User: Fold this.
Amino acid sequence: MTNQTDREQLAGYDSVAFRFRPLEPTDGMALHHLVRACPPLDTNSSYCNLLQSGHFNATSVAAVLDDELVGSVTGYRIPDRTDTLFVWQVAVHTKARGRGLAKSMLHNLLERMMQEGVRYIETSITSDNEASQKLFSRFATEQQTEMVRSIMFDKELHFDGAHDTEYLYRLGPFEKVIT
Assistant:
């Protein structure tokens, strides 16, 4: 939920455009702090976020405002299915929410990745993450493509009961990005 201070800070953001770029190796710690500030996202180690920013920067996008990382989409191409981008996490800082930033980052990343032969997006979402479910469902509808949901990692079978079931959402095929 956005608090009063965040709303005041956003007052001038309507006329300012977010700058999109691939993550950079120096973004690792900023990405780590951003993800920690965005529950219910799973927090990974800072080392993992450094690898995402360095090794997987071509398959990720950073949203920057006033030199601050306020959003990111991290992902990677599935090695044996290079036409598929797996979106690991979508993070938007509370002070940048309500502006369609998550959808804009997905558009930016998909447009870039389609030039590399990507035609599908996959992601995993738990049943309690309604924001991500809505984001990807709306994205599929707006892009006029299919979305199929199945179990990716079962709570009991894969997580020993320690984590909620992760549902796989597969979107595509994408023929072009509709903005």
Remarks:
- The chain is about 30% helix and 30% strand.
- The first strand starts at residue 19 and ends at 21.
- The domain at 16-172 is CATH 3.40.630.30 (Aminopeptidase).
